[in-house]
Amino acid sequence: MDIIKKTYKKRLRRRRGIRKKIFGVKEKPRLSVFRSSKNIYCQIIDDTTGMTLASASTVTKDIKDKSPYGGNAKAAELVGQKIAEEAQKLGITKTVFDRGGYKFHGRVKALAESARKNNLAC
């Protein structure tokens, strides 16, 4: 249990360092990613108002139908496609990517690259 707390605290420390530098405005909101062991979630956030503009995750029905297990890179790619579609509906083309203290590889990288393929610059 002590190791789990230690890794969690290390991630939060990295996250604070990232959040000092990243701030989402209306023209270029923040694309925030949260990764659990079984699912991945992302939100487009306007930090000036503190509002979530769009969100997507592996828990939603349409993504869960395509990929029943949400803890792999394939599911993360589907979430990246979904968040890019939601952003286009809102007229958002550019975002600031907030990896949430996670390393930029695996599921986080798959989500970001999938969003970029679908015309969401992050």
Describe this structure in words.
With 122 residues, this protein is α+β, with helices and mostly antiparallel strands. The chain has a single domain (2-117), classed as 2-Layer Sandwich (Nucleotidyltransferase, domain 5). The chain is built from 4 helices and 4 strands; from the N terminus they run αβββααβα. It has helices at residues 2-21, 61-66, 73-90, 107-117; strands at 30-35, 40-46, 51-57, 96-98. It has a 4-stranded mixed beta sheet, covered by helices on one side. Strand 1 and strand 2 form a beta hairpin. Helix 3 packs parallel to helix 4. The longest helix is centred in the N-terminal third of the chain and has 20 residues, at 2-21. 33% of the residues are buried.
